Every structure is written in C-alpha cells, then in structure tokens.
Amino acid sequence: MTQGRSGIRFDRVCVAYGGNTVLDSLELTVEPGEVMALLGPSGSGKTTALRAVAGFVRPASGRVFIGERDVTDLPPHRRGIGMVVQSYALFPHLRVADNVAFGMRAQKVPKAEIPGRVAEALELTGMAAYARRYPRELSGGQQQRVAIARALAIRPGVLLLDEPLSALDAQLRSGMLAELARLHRELPDVSILYVTHDQVEALTLADRIAVMDKARLQDVGTPQELYRTPRTEFTASFVGGANLLPVRVASGSVSFGQAELKVPTDGVAPGATATLCVRPHLVGLGDGPNALTGTVTEVQWRGSTHRLYVEVDGRQVKADVRELRQPPALGERATVHFAPEDAVLLRAGVTDDD
Ligand SMILES: Nc1ncnc2c1ncn2[C@@H]1O[C@H](COP(=O)(O)OP(=O)(O)OP(=O)(O)O)[C@@H](O)[C@H]1O
Ligand SMILES: [Mg+2]
C-alpha cells in the first residue's frame, strides 16, 4: 500500500529565515518503515526539518524526497504525509469522526470510502467509541489519539510527529509511547519522523536517532550506538547523562590528573588530549579498577538510586548507585571506580565544528 511512498530523504537541505540559516545542509535518509527520532535542544532546527518534509517551508537549496518522488516543489496536500503537531490542532466545532474525515475530504477521497476509513483509523487508535464527541469532551490523551487518527486516515506513506506527547503528563506520556510503538507494529511500512527533545522518547521508540544542534545534524545512529559509543561530547551528554573527563592518552591507558586509567584507546595517538566518557550508572562506589578518590560535594536521593557528585581534580564525577542505606556525607572523602570496558574515548574537538 505504501510501496514507493514511504521513506524520506533530505538531500543537502538548507532553510534560512531572513538570512539566518536554521537548517544547514541537512543530509539524512529515513528508510521505508523506519522510525527516526529527531532529537536536539530547543531552536536546533527540528521542527524546521519536519516542515520542510511537509511542505510548509521552502528550502533555500537542496531537495526533499518522499519515497522515490522529489516533492520539493509539491504543495503539502500532494505529498502523501500525515502530520501531528504538539497542539493537536483539532477543529473544535467538528465531531471526532468529522475531524478524522477532514484530511480525506481535502484529498478528494471518494465519498463512499470515507466512513470506512474513519472507522478504521479510530479503531487503530482505540477511539472508536468516541466518534460522535466534540474535542472539548475529550481528555488530552484522547485528543492526541484523534489527531493521530486524522493523520493516519489519509493512509500516508510518511508520518510526521512534532513533539506529539509534550502536552501530556508523565504517566499518559508513557502510555502513549507504548501506543505509538503498537501502532507502528500494525503499520510496519509507514516511515515515521518523530521530533522530540525528550531522550527517553527517542531511545524508546526510534530505530535510529538523528541528533541536531545549531541547525546541523551532529550524529545519527541506533539508540544503542549513540548511547554506548557516542562519537561526540554533544551526543554523549544529550543522549543519556555522561561524565566527560579531559584526559591525556597513553597506550592502553589515559591520565586524568594524577590518576592513570585503563581504557580502550584504539585509534587514538598517544600524547593526544581527549575526552573520556563514562555513564554515571556505570560508576560504582568504593575501590575497584580505575579508582578515583575525591570529595563528596552533593548527594541526591532519587528513589531507587543515589546520585553522588565526587570532586576529583577539579571535576565533578557523577555516580548513580543503588540506593544506599548510609550515603556518604558532604565533604567526606569517597572513592569511585569504573570498568575499563565501560569507558569510551572521544576525540577532542569533534564537537566544535565538523
Ligand atoms: N517562521 C520563522 N521565522 C523566523 N525564524 C524562525 C521561524 N521559524 C523558526 N525560526 C527559527 O529557526 C530556528 C529553528 O527553529 P525550530 O522551530 O526548527 O526549532 P526546534 O528545534 O523545533 O525547537 P523547539 O524544540 O523549541 O521546538 C530557531 O532559532 C527559530 O527561532
Ligand atoms: Mg520544534
């Protein structure tokens, strides 16, 4: 059904507003059936990228492809996309069923087909029982489902979701995340481009994550790749928390202040400066391999874990450890450690331009 209409390709897409580049030569491919999360801080260009696919913003240069088609010059309604934005944008004066039918009317779907497709889309999103309600008679989560049903009713090859869950509370959000995952299993051919600045959403839903910062694509990879072996400091700190320690490289080890740490150094020349990335949950309290001793500067209780900040050589080393019966006191000396294989060496300077 979606053959040839699924998949997205940005071919060096630039977008500028009044001479200000907000999307800088984006090159990115979303495969047919793939869920790609676009992750990045506010203002990094995520919505702009989505709007370029939808046809609401015209690239200054570059081309946009949906499936095999170059859609750069096509108006939005001819691109075969479904789009859901943060505010849902349901029509308040239309019942749920008419909201869902709306896009199909615009697309001139034969009249006789519309009721069946409305029913199908409402079924998919678990909203069949609400067809005759008005948006104001629905909860936020239900309105969100209707917005998704409306986007799906046109049977898009590509579904664009812009922070679709950000208006929902935390519990609803995690429920909707599971719903979206289920929806994608039922529509395995549809490509989904999912904009978020929530890393949990990106890690949970996406086949791959594209990390954006300052109008540029910084990194792209599977959630596991970006989390376990980030290439840049930006990715390391944005996709999961990270300890980033400035080190000098020797062979098979690095020095951090007075400490010598055994870590994999493949491909990095001895003598170079670099950044060592260690995830806080992989840092243990007490002595062990790669031990670092310093002063406890902060202790945070987080329910099932304690987050400890230990100042070593002027740097705060963060350790997330299982809840402690007797957490260390502020100002106390403490030793933390991590296994050599849990550290990743990032080449210095990768984050500053290219
Ligand atoms: N219509 C517009 N006119 C001028 N500048 C704009 C316009 N739309 C967006 N921008 C600017 O483009 C940049 C990227 O905006 P964009 O909406 O793509 O960011 P975003 O990554 O989606 O951020 P957020 O997470 O806050 O939604 C921002 O600096 C923004 O101010
Ligand atoms: Mg945005």
Automatic annotation (TrEMBL):
Domain called ABC transporter: residue spans: 8-239
Alphabetized UniProt keyword annotations: ATP-binding, Nucleotide-binding, Transport
EC number(s) given by UniProt: 7.6.2.9
Gene3D superfamilies assigned: 2.40.50.100, P-loop containing nucleotide triphosphate hydrolases (3.40.50.300)
EC category: translocase
GO function term, MF aspect, one: ABC-type quaternary ammonium compound transporting activity
InterPro entries: AAA+_ATPase, ABC_SmlMolc_Importer, ABC_transporter-like_ATP-bd, ABC_transporter-like_CS, Mo/tungstate-bd_C_term_dom, P-loop_NTPase, Transp-assoc_OB_typ2
Gene Ontology CC terms, in alphabetical order: ATP-binding cassette (ABC) transporter complex
PROSITE patterns, alphabetized: ABC_TRANSPORTER_1, ABC_TRANSPORTER_2
Descriptive protein name: ABC-type quaternary amine transporter
Organism: Streptomyces tabacisoli
